């Protein structure tokens, strides 16, 4: 399932790595694409939207919106 998250607080490559690693802790096979300029994180994963959102939150970032099934 592909999901796109609107995320606040990301500003550098460290942020990209932190979000990517947090998601992959829940799903090692997840495909993660981060667009820093747009504040978007597109995830292809078998995990639920709630689990992915929780992973991003736990990494210290704020999810402001979710678009299930969005194309990246």
From TrEMBL:
GO terms of biological process kind: copper ion transport
Protein name: Copper chaperone
Domain of life of the source: Bacteria
Keywords of the record: Metal-binding
Presence of the UniProt keyword Metal-binding in the record: yes
Regions that span the bilayer: none
CDD domains: HMA
Recorded GO MF terms: copper ion binding
All copies of domain HMA, residue ranges: 1-64
């Amino acid at each position: 399932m592909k999901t796109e998250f609107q995320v606040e607080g990301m500003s550098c490559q460290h942020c990209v790595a932190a979000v990517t690693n947090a998601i992959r802790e829940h799903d090692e096979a997840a495909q993660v694409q981060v667009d820093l300029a747009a504040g978007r994180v597109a995830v292809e994963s078998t995990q639920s939207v709630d689990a992915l959102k929780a992973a991003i939150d736990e990494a210290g970032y704020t999810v402001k919106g979710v678009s299930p099934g969005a194309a990246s």
